[in-house]
């Protein structure tokens, strides 16, 4: 009996050893085991794909004709049609609301308010945008941003600079939340000044936080903080590019032919089909307005008893029908900031170029982490953020993909283009001019077209202007379950790998 038990124990150990060996995935390049401390600890994740961040909607990319497809009644000719491709990305389902933005200003005041009150003041929207020489808007000045009745209405009075800062803050809060949910960090409401979570500072080891349990370091057998390679944290929230915004607004996916081929059946002037701004199907919604805009001079919402869009100024962020990507108010309600610097000739530049038709954008000023003499990131700033510096042209002399660190004026405002913008003398276009799109509660229907574009200085705000965030997608273009590239499940010809 003892011999039998001893034999059984040996057999169990052998099975466990054999199973553990078989479970180790090995490198197809070197044969060394992944995720094995004994073999160096190089890690390979069984990664399920990028998660969808709060309030984001996945937008499958593709090719489309970018530009104004209706009559250019303003005769600006600043967005002539050209075919481009946009990579898959994510976009906010709604415009950023007052309650969303108040959470941001509350956090900024709590963390920085005592030492750096100017940070809080710079974050607060300009509520004076509601004043008007010949209109009684004082109630909106005092209540629109702060009164709970307007919690779910789009925030306005926010400049492009403020919107960009909000995106950075949101990135940090979402990534901190993901680390807390993973059990790596504890909640920490005592953060102050430079001792506050910042994604960049955490990743370079300049912020530790209230650690609950770090990840196992397979190289040393001890513990380590999370890395970006662990796939826990998300890429940054940011303003969408103009191309991304226009593509998402049109949502031409809804017009794919019934055969599911590579054709759209119809173009669109608006984020919906048809040449009208009213609901067309023959049901109880027939004739209702599809967006919040100004119908005619002095007509912002119709007559009492039959309000046509039911909103004199802004409407709630989940009003009206979402488009075929599931996005609300991509026409009307409030205009929306996009990332791009405005130049009137950008569309012609892109139309005439062969190598700028994938994810086109104007506004690149390339930067890198600021490092010391030993190549290590310099100490974070007083707000806890990692420091960056802009790349200089002489650093790019040996590169063939870019030759200038500042591409704002590339082929539209530089010497090669022979275009010159004499700001405030002959034009309002400058390096601070940023594009906004979508139309608002105070605009006529022409501006509801995704191809229409206007601009405003990045440090200015307006009562008709808000924003929503976007995020880049990592990995496959379709879904997490489907890798990029066509996958053909066919029997492959056996390859003889012996030397001959």
TrEMBL record:
Bias-annotated ranges (Polar residues): 477-489
Residues annotated as domain Sulfatase-modifying factor enzyme-like: 54-368
Signal peptide bounds: 1-26
Alphabetical keyword list: Signal
Record protein name field: Sulphatase-modifying factor protein
A molecular function (GO) term: formylglycine-generating oxidase activity
Disordered: annotated segments: 473-500
Compositionally biased tracts (Basic residues): 490-500
Domain of life: Bacteria
InterPro entries: CTDL_fold (IPR016187), Sulfatase_Mod_Factor_Kinase (IPR051043), SUMF_dom (IPR005532), SUMF_sf (IPR042095)
């Amino acid at each position: 009996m003892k011999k039998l038990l001893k034999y059984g124990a040996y057999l169990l150990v052998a099975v466990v050893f054999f199973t553990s060996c078989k479970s180790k995935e090995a490198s197809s390049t070197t044969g060394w085991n992944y995720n094995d401390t004994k073999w160096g600890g190089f890690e390979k994740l069984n990664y399920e794909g990028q998660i969808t961040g709060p309030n984001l909607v996945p937008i499958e990319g593709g090719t489309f004709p970018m530009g104004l497809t209706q009559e250019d009644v303003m005769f600006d000719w600043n967005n002539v049609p050209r075919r481009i491709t946009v990579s898959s990305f994510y976009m906010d389902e709604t415009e950023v609301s007052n309650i969303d933005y108040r959470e941001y200003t509350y956090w900024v005041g709590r963390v920085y308010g005592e030492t750096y009150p100017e940070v809080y003041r710079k974050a607060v929207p300009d509520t004076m945008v509601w004043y008007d020489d010949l209109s009684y808007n004082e109630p909106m000045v005092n209540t629109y941003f702060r009164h709970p009745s307007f919690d779910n209405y789009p925030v306005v009075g926010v400049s492009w600079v403020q919107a960009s800062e909000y995106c950075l803050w949101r990135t940090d809060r979402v990534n901190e939340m993901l680390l807390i949910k993973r059990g790596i960090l504890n909640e920490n409401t005592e953060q102050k000044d430079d001792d506050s979570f910042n994604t960049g500072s955490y990743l370079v080891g300049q912020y530790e936080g209230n650690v609950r349990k770090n990840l196992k370091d397979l190289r040393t057998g001890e513990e380590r903080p999370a890395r970006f390679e662990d796939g826990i944290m998300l890429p940054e929230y940011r303003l969408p590019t103009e191309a991304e915004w226009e593509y998402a607004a049109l949502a031409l996916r809804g017009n794919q032919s019934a055969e599911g081929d590579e054709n759209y059946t119809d173009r669109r002037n608006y984020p919906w089909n048809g040449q009208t701004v009213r609901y067309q199907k023959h049901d109880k919604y027939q004739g209702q307005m599809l967006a919040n805009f100004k119908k005619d001079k002095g007509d912002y919402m119709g007559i009492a008893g039959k309000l046509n869009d039911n909103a004199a100024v802004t409407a709630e962020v989940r009003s009206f029908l979402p488009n075929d990507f599931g996005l609300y108010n991509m026409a009307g309600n409030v205009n929306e900031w996009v990332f791009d610097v405005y130049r009137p000739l950008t569309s012609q530049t892109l139309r005439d170029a062969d190598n700028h038709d994938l994810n086109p954008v104007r506004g690149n000023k390339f930067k890198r982490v600021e490092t010391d003499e030993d190549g290590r990131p310099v100490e974070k700033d007083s707000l806890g953020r990692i420091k960056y510096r802009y790349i200089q042209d002489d650093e790019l002399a040996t590169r063939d993909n870019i030759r200038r660190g500042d591409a704002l004026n590339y082929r539209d405002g530089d010497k090669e283009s022979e275009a010159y913008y004499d700001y405030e003398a002959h034009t309002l276009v400058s390096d601070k001019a940023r594009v906004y799109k979508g139309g608002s509660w105070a605009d006529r229907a022409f501006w509801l077209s995704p191809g229409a574009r206007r601009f405003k200085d990045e440090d200015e705000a307006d009562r008709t202007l808000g924003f929503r965030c976007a995020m880049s997608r990592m990995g496959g273009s379709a879904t997490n379950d489907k890798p990029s590239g066509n996958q053909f499940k066919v029997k492959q010809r056996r390859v003889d790998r012996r030397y001959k």
